């Protein structure tokens, strides 16, 4: 029998170790797996590489990991949001390495990892300083840059509903990086607002098939 | 009534001027900041679908308190709504839409635009400020047309329409049209062509606020 449901947040993040690369879903405040990230903080692991779109906000989730100096490196497209004061402070102190990646390139690098590809050529950023040191090639008369896959040891994602096989649906714009990140993590952990019975999710409406998911945990709804 | 001398486009007029150039049936992405104002200026008699990089097509206006969905935000992290017929998709598909040439128009803000259509809008190169790029580079390379909307000069009066960008590039040779408070300009093979002067702005005044030679 397949049952990917786990009883607690502690069980959901069990086994994550120091030095792990963790893909964290969310865009702004939408679709952030805050409870899972807080559970990683409680786990006490350090020297993490966090891949996420923004630099954390306020004092919870990724911001708390950065505040507590658990994050060695942030791979990110837009860290400098108004509420990212812990990112700004740790970066200014030189305590946090930043790899800045254009948003679509970041997402596609994770897709490449999940899809078993060795990378891809993109025109995005090819003629800019973000392509410095990378292989470039003219393709159909346009400069492209070679981008590597970006796999995670773990992905942490927020979805709406899950059944015991790990099939997922999402809610509105909270879907964002989730469906890509769950394919790119060696261990994919998803927090949902609701568990449903197998068969309750219309197969035509399942956004993420359960094969990509290892653990699902239920958290309270907003 | 006191006569008011109009000089230049107001911010609202700039947004309306961009909106006027967006054809019915277009798929459009509006960048953060000044480009967002174009959304309010879109005429109701045209069906124009707005795309948001975080996975929305058919983005609607600001919600009423009853309509508010805390997860439904735009690229600027503001609450929005979904029009009837709108859809959600994940980030990788959203950037496929952008980079794959499926958007008709991308409206972006600019620090500088060169006479060749080079765009600089993501970094001032200040090493004390953490860099951030978001979706700007994908939007700049991907859309069929790129419109830049910005003030014509900096607060100190320095031209932002330049021969060569001094700030780090977002993408080279991508901008098709430039909308400023002083004029609308089209980027052509032989340089910048003035499509329209803002009310009360003279050719000499526009040229003196602009680095490259303009074609009138």
UniProtKB/TrEMBL annotation, chain A:
InterPro entries: 3-oxoacid_CoA-transf_A (IPR012792), CoA_trans_fam_I (IPR004165), CoA_transf_BS (IPR004163), NagB/RpiA_transferase-like (IPR037171). This is 3-oxoadipate CoA-transferase alpha subunit. Keywords: Transferase. It comes from Antricoccus suffuscus. Belongs to the 3-oxoacid CoA-transferase subunit A family. One of its GO terms (molecular function) is CoA-transferase activity. It holds the Pfam family CoA_trans.
UniProtKB/TrEMBL annotation, chain B:
Gene3D superfamilies: Glutaconate Coenzyme A-transferase. It holds the Pfam family CoA_trans. The keyword Transferase applies. It comes from the Bacteria. Keywords: Transferase. GO terms for molecular function: CoA-transferase activity. InterPro entries: 3-oxoacid_CoA-transf_B, CoA_trans_fam_I, CoA_transf_AS, NagB/RpiA_transferase-like. PROSITE patterns: COA_TRANSF_2. Belongs to the 3-oxoacid CoA-transferase subunit B family. PANTHER family: KETOACID-COENZYME A TRANSFERASE, SUCCINYL-COA:3-KETOACID COENZYME A TRANSFERASE SUBUNIT B-RELATED. This is 3-oxoadipate CoA-transferase beta subunit. It comes from Antricoccus suffuscus.
């Amino acid at each position: 029998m397949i049952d990917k449901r786990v009883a607690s947040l502690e069980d959901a993040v069990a086994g994550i170790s120091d030095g792990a690369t963790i893909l964290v879903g969310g865009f702004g405040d939408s679709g952030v797996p805050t409870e899972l990230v807080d559970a990683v903080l409680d786990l006490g692991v350090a020297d993490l590489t966090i891949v996420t779109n923004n630099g954390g906000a306020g004092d919870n989730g990724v911001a708390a990991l950065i505040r507590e100096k658990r994050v060695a490196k942030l791979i990110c497209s837009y860290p400098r949001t108004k509420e990212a004061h812990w990112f700004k402070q740790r970066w200014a102190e030189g305590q946090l390495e930043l790899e800045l990646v254009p948003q679509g390139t970041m997402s596609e690098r994770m897709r490449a990892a999940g899809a078993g590809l060795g990378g891809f050529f993109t025109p995005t950023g090819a003629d800019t300083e973000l392509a410095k040191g990378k292989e470039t090639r003219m393709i159909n008369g346009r400069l492209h840059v070679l981008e590597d896959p970006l796999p995670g040891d773990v992905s942490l994602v927020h979805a709406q509903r899950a059944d015991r096989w790990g099939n997922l649906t999402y809610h509105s714009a909270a879907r964002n990086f989730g469906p890509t990140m769950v394919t790119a993590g060696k261990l994919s952990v998803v927090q949902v607002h609701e568990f449903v019975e197998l068969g309750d999710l219309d197969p035509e409406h399942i956004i993420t098939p359960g094969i990509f998911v290892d653990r699902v945990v239920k958290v309270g709804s907003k | 009534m006191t006569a008011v001398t109009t000089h230049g486009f107001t911010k609202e007029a700039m947004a309306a001027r961009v909106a006027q150039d967006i054809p019915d049936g277009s798929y459009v992405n509006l960048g953060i900041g000044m480009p967002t104002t174009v959304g309010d200026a879109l005429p109701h008699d045209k069906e124009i679908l707005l795309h948001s990089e975080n996975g929305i097509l058919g983005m609607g206006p600001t919600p009423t308190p009853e309509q508010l969905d805390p997860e439904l935000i735009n690229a600027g992290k503001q609450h929005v709504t979904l029009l009837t017929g709108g859809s959600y998709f994940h980030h990788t598909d959203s950037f496929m839409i952008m980079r794959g040439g499926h958007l008709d128009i991308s409206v972006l803000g600019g620090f500088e635009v060169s006479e060749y259509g080079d765009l600089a809008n993501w970094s001032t190169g200040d090493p004390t400020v953490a860099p951030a790029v978001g979706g700007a580079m994908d939007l700049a390379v991907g859309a069929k047309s790129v419109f830049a909307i910005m003030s014509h000069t900096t607060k100190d009066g320095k031209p932002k329409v330049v021969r060569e960008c001094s700030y780090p590039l977002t993408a080279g040779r991508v901008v098709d049209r430039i909308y400023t408070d002083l004029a609308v300009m089209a980027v052509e093979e032989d340089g910048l062509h003035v499509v329209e002067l803002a009310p009360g702005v003279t050719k000499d005044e526009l040229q003196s606020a602009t680095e490259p030679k303009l074609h009138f």
